[in-house]
């Protein structure tokens, strides 16, 4: 009897061990070939995600010892991995890719991850960005494959320049979002213009008089902060939180209609923000200047609560350029 129990125990142990091994190992296949480096990218993406899974299962930080990963990835992921464990949710991944027009980098889109701390967890989508030789060059938290499909759908691209800039804008927006989750103050300092306007909307509803109130009388008060004030608030109050969860949805990208101002783009989206004990949702507008495509800068960041009607939201048309 004792021998039979021992045999069953050993068999169960091996079965569970096999499951752990299966869960930890990830295989990535690209849906479309990207040329001669397709197999290299697949192998490197698989090795990267497998190491994330191994480390998460052991509650350790990953060690990326192989040469397939750039120092840039190590540096960018380090602050994230100080807070979170990252774990790929699928063991067999069929990945969409696209090649960026400006720099030839290959973006492997929207890998589903579990992003967890001791007391909470989220589902995230991760982009893996590869050099043409197959080296993993960078990672960003993705806005999601559906957002990409919408932005690049027929009729939304004006010309070749617009296509290139919208690819850059989505990459920029994802880096912008990732910077908040990483609490990367230095990156945000670089991308905001020194004279940037930071606008925060607040809904004020008039008090009823004698039991009567005006129907639909939502009033929005907007406070304007300087870049210095905004950055100091991030450092002192926001980035002291244990974690930050930031989501972007319903992204719209609009180029300025004046050909002489075509380097200016307005980005409108819904922002979903959460920190321990607090969450909100609202409309975010970014005015981005692509005069230097290598270093786009933000002139305006405006946040408004969901109660604000579409006709009252901040848009590109609210600003004069001179």
Can you describe this structure?
Helix content is 33%, strand content 33%. The chain is built from 7 helices and 13 strands. A hairpin with an 8-residue loop joins strand 10 (245-255) and strand 11.
Summarize the structure.
The protein has 322 residues and is α+β, with helices and mostly antiparallel strands. The chain contains 7 helices and 13 strands. The protein is globular.
This entry's quaternary arrangement is single chain
Principal-axis shape equals globular
The fraction of residues in strands falls at 25-35%
Number of helices: 7
Strand arrangement in the largest pleated sheet: 9-8-13-12-11-10
What's the count of strands? Answer: 13
- Low-confidence segments, given as residue ranges, are 1-23
**Mean pLDDT metric:** 84
Distance between the termini: 89 Å
Structural class: alpha+beta
Helix content: 25-40%
Q: Biggest β-sheet, characterized?
A: 6 strands, mixed
Compute the gyration radius: what is it? 23 Å
Q: In terms of topology, how is this protein built?
A:
Elements: H1 2-24, E1 27-30, H2 38-58, H3 71-83, E2 85-88, E3 92-95, E4 97-99, E5 106-116, E6 121-130, E7 136-141, H4 145-151, H5 160-182, H6 185-191, E8 192-204, E9 219-225, H7 227-238, E10 245-255, E11 264-275, E12 278-289, E13 297-305
Parallel strand pairs: 1-3, 8-13
Antiparallel strand pairs: 2-5, 4-5, 5-6, 6-7, 8-9, 10-11, 11-12, 12-13
């Amino acid at each position: 009897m004792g021998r039979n129990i021992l045999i069953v125990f050993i068999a169960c142990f091996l079965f569970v061990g096999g499951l752990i091994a299966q869960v930890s190992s990830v295989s990535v296949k690209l849906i479309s070939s990207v040329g001669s480096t397709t197999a290299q990218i697949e192998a490197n993406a698989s090795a990267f995600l497998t190491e994330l899974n191994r480390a998460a299962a052991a509650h350790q930080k990953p060690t990326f010892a192989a040469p397939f990963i750039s120092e840039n990835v190590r540096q960018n992921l380090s602050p994230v991995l100080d807070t979170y464990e990252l774990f790929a949710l699928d063991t067999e991944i069929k990945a969409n890719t696209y090649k960026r027009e400006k720099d030839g980098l290959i973006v492997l889109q929207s890998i589903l991850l579990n992003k967890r701390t001791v007391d909470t967890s989220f589902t995230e989508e991760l982009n893996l960005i590869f050099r043409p030789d197959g080296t993993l060059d960078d990672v960003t938290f993705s806005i999601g494959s559906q957002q990409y499909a919408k932005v690049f759908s027929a009729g939304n691209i004006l010309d070749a320049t617009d296509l290139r800039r919208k690819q850059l804008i989505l990459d920029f927006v994802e880096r912008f979002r990732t910077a908040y989750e990483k609490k990367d103050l230095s990156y945000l300092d670089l991308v905001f213009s020194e004279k940037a306007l930071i606008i925060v909307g607040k809904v004020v509803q008039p008090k009823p008089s004698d039991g009567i109130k005006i129907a639909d009388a939502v009033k929005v008060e907007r406070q304007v902060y300087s870049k210095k004030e905004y950055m100091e608030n991030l450092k002192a109050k926001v980035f002291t939180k244990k974690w930050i969860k930031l989501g972007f949805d319903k992204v719209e990208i609009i180029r300025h209609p004046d050909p002489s101002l075509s380097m200016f783009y307005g980005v409108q989206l819904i922002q979903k923000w959460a920190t321990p004990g607090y969450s909100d949702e609202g409309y975010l507008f970014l005015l981005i200047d692509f005069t230097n495509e290598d270093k786009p800068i933000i002139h305006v960041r405006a946040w408004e609560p969901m109660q604000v009607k579409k006709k009252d939201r901040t848009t590109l048309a609210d600003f004069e350029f001179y």
